[in-house]
């Protein structure tokens, strides 16, 4: 399998994260997969944002879950960009997506869109929440899933298997050879995050990982040459 470069919230190192501008830039940079984050608005829209509130990434304040889509649309998400809904991203780019469920409640809404548009082959569903992965599996036939972990031990492999995930996306700062070996024995694909320097890239290539999530598109150009 080729080494995958995954654009973190698009290319958040150079464009406003989780915006159409960022996703288009990631596609133009030739990244293999684009990662994004999903929450539900107050009125049930599947919106693309990372945090539970809008404070850090927009000119507004307050929780996403307490705002309607119209209220979210009125915010500036950076450089004049608006908060997108998931289906807008599907229409704006053709690159495969990794859709991270930040709010477990979003799993069913995502499943509905994926089934309606036949996205099991294009969209991998990821989450820090084991229950979100386990919930979407039976709802979307053939869906590929990934369990994400920041603080973890060897138990992450057992958790991924129990949730039915095919991939683990792991914080490279806690990665060990033992965890990699256990994941391989369980036939799990391994993605490292966040890989933003050549030292990070050398580390994930030395571990033999399947790919890297990055904020910077130049990792794509250098990744194939780094041993």
From TrEMBL:
<dbReference type="GO" id="GO:0006629">
    <property type="term" value="P:lipid metabolic process"/>
</dbReference>
<dbReference type="InterPro" id="IPR030395">
    <property type="entry name" value="GP_PDE_dom"/>
</dbReference>
<feature type="domain" description="GP-PDE">
    <location>
        <begin position="3"/>
        <end position="224"/>
    </location>
</feature>
<dbReference type="GO" id="GO:0008081">
    <property type="term" value="F:phosphoric diester hydrolase activity"/>
</dbReference>
<protein>
    <submittedName>
        <fullName>Glycerophosphoryl diester phosphodiesterase</fullName>
    </submittedName>
</protein>
<dbReference type="InterPro" id="IPR017946">
    <property type="entry name" value="PLC-like_Pdiesterase_TIM-brl"/>
</dbReference>
<dbReference type="Pfam" id="PF03009">
    <property type="entry name" value="GDPD"/>
</dbReference>
């Amino acid at each position: 399998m080729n080494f995958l470069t995954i654009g973190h919230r698009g290319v958040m190192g150079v464009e406003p994260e989780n915006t159409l501008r960022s996703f288009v830039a990631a596609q133009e940079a030739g990244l293999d997969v684009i990662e994004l984050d999903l929450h539900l608005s107050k009125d049930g829209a599947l919106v693309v944002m990372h945090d539970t509130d809008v404070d850090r990434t927009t000119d507004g304040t307050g929780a996403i879950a307490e705002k309607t889509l119209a209220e979210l649309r009125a915010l500036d998400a950076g450089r004049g960009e608006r908060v997108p809904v998931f289906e807008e991203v599907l229409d704006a780019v053709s690159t495969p997506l990794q859709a991270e469920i930040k709010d477990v409640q979003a799993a069913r809404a995502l499943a509905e869109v994926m089934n309606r548009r036949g996205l099991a082959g294009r969209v991998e569903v990821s989450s820090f929440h084991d229950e979100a992965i386990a919930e979407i599996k039976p709802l979307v036939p053939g869906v590929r899933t990934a369990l994400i972990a920041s603080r973890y031990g060897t138990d992450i492999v057992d958790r991924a298997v129990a949730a039915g995930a095919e991939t683990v996306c792991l914080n490279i700062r806690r990665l060990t050879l033992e965890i990699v070996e256990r994941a391989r024995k369980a036939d799990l694909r391994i993605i490292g995050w966040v890989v933003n320097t050549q030292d990070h890239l050398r580390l994930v290539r030395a571990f033999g990982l399947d790919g890297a999530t990055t904020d910077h598109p130049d990792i794509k150009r250098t990744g194939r040459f780094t041993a």
